[in-house]
């Protein structure tokens, strides 16, 4: 019968292996914390610049002064713009509620630095006409009065569905949408909106917000949009 060999070293307890792994992970964690405590001013500035511009702030300049300085002093222009955006949205929502009470379909859409008030044009314009109904004009003037004091640049954009125009003074939907936007712009000028802050565009059927496959969807595409870009 073979003799059992004497163990030269005692085996390591199982718990000690787990404890060693835990210590290694803790050491790695503290090394990571230490590496994060050393900030590259250049990378920090680039990150802040990206966040600021993404939220509609102006483009930050003077990189050299910020990178070389001992103290990092950053201007966050996004905050005043966020406050301004909320104020504009409040005014547009007031107009939207007023229009809906009058039976006119409208909605406010916000994306990034852009805010849009959409007026669906079936009750704004007669079919094929570029002139708004007379009973709608006071509501358009009220919208102008709400936005006039902000002094913000405003683009009035006309849209249509894809049903071709047959007869009448306009050759196609693009001409009709541009004429509608221009006539709304004239009302804003009459209201006292600053001329250099206004622009009118016609997009025709080329920027639909719904498929032109049903009467209800085509009605959504027939619209006038008042577009405010807070990043300008």
Secondary-structure element series: HHHHEEHEHEHE
- Compute the number of structural domains: 2
What kind of sheet is the major sheet?
A: 5 strands, mixed
Indicate the structural class.
alpha+beta
Shape, per Cα inertia axes? elongated
Mean pLDDT: 84
Number of helices: 7
Helix fraction, binned, reads 40-55%
Tell me the β content: 5-15%
Radius of gyration: 31 Å
CATH 2nd-level architecture of the largest domain: 2-Layer Sandwich
Walk me through this protein's architecture:
This protein is of the alpha+beta class and 232 residues long. It has two domains: 62 residues, no CATH class; 151 residues, 60s Ribosomal Protein L30, Chain: A (2-Layer Sandwich), CATH 3.30.1330.60. The chain is built from seven helices and five strands, in the order H-H-H-H-E-E-H-E-H-E-H-E. A five-stranded mixed β-sheet has the order 1-2-5-3-4. Strand 1 and strand 2 form a beta hairpin. Helix 4 packs antiparallel against helix 5 and helix 5 packs across helix 6. The longest helix has 24 residues. The radius of gyration is 31 Å and the shape is elongated.
Strand and helix layout:
Blueprint: H1 14-37, H2 41-54, H3 63-68, H4 78-101, E1 106-111, E2 114-120, H5 137-148, E3 154-159, H6 173-191, E4 198-202, H7 215-221, E5 223-229
Parallel strand pairs: 3-4
Antiparallel strand pairs: 1-2, 2-5, 3-5
């Amino acid at each position: 019968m073979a003799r059992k060999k004497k163990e030269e070293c005692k085996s390591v307890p199982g718990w000690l292996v787990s404890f060693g792994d835990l210590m290694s992970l803790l050491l790695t964690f503290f090394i990571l914390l230490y590496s994060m405590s050393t900030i590259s001013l250049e990378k920090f500035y680039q990150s802040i610049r990206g966040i600021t511009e993404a939220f509609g702030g102006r483009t930050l300049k003077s990189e050299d002064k910020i990178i070389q300085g001992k103290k990092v002093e950053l201007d966050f222009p996004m905050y005043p713009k966020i406050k301004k955006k909320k104020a504009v949205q409040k005014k547009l929502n007031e107009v939207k509620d007023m229009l809906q009470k009058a039976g006119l379909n409208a909605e406010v859409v916000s994306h990034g630095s852009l805010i849009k008030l959409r007026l669906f044009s079936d009750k704004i314009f007669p079919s094929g006409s570029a002139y708004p109904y007379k009973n709608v004009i006071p509501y358009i003037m009220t919208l102008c009065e709400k936005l006039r004091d902000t002094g913000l640049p405003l683009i009035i954009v006309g849209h249509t569905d894809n049903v071709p125009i047959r007869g009448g003074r306009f050759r196609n939907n693009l001409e009709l949408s541009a004429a509608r936007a221009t006539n709304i712009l004239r009302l804003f000028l009459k209201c006292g909106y600053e001329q250099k802050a206004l622009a009118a565009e016609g997009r025709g059927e080329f920027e639909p917000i719904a498929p032109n496959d049903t009467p209800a969807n085509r009605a959504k595409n027939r619209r006038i949009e008042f577009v405010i870009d807070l990043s300008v």
